[in-house]
Amino acid sequence: MKEGYLKEVYNNITKNGIVYKQKTKPILYHATDKEFLWNDKLTHLTSGGRSENNLVENPRLNLRCLKYPIIEPPKREIIGDSWVNNNTQYTDYKREFNCGEVTFRIINNITLVIWIPEKIVDRCYIRNISTKVHSDIQLYADWFQKEFCCKLGSPSPYQDLHMAFKENDPMLCNLVDKYGLLKIIDIDNRVVGWWDKSKKYVEFETHDERIAEARAFYPYKIVFFEDKISELEASIEKLPDLIADKICNHYNDFNNNQKNINMDRFEDVT
After folding, report:
1. How buried is 148 (Cβ within 10 angstroms: 0-12 exposed, 13-18 middle, 19+ buried)?
2. Cα–Cα distance between 33 and 228 in angstroms, integer?
3. Total count of domains within the chain
4. What is the pTM of this model?
């Protein structure tokens, strides 16, 4: 398989009876030897054209949960599934709401953890989504206090909120099938993103809103910058003519000024 290369192409043009060789835009050949014109966009070269199927889907919000200290224990009985693990007592109380099934987990009678169901969110609301999730969970915390006559303290994170995107890249999907998990680790050795197959399909997941936002919008940003590049190239092509016009105008203005100066001197002498 050949590597891609650029071939410079020249056209013969005639100006004022003189023939010049003018370099045109290079034609890009990729590994299959299929030719693409210089103004074909990257999305055309790699994905066969833009379509909704090629764009990133809205993320799935997972692990939407918070924990609350129980300041005053419930005065009404809570009936749920109870068990003990590693000397820790758990009680799960589940209740159906408009959003789906919400889980209230009491740990050792001193901590309440609230889970609300997963949700697909519009990519436009990824920024500060944690604040919105906390606000949603607080509604169920208020309901729990009123329903069971108890008092809760200030909330804090229990598990990091995850934003998951369905992965469509065949190479990444094959790697996940082979290795089970792929991680992105930053310079501080922290896992900031990963690919796994917790669902029936491969997903890219992150708890960093900035990374999730970049993942959600990068196809659109690429298209935006590709369009800007075309506009920039058109502007650059006009530069030689603009510079020539400026030089010509400056030269004419200089000659006219010199003529006016000479005429003034001539009038002074006479």
Report:
1. middle
2. 27
3. 1
4. 0.56
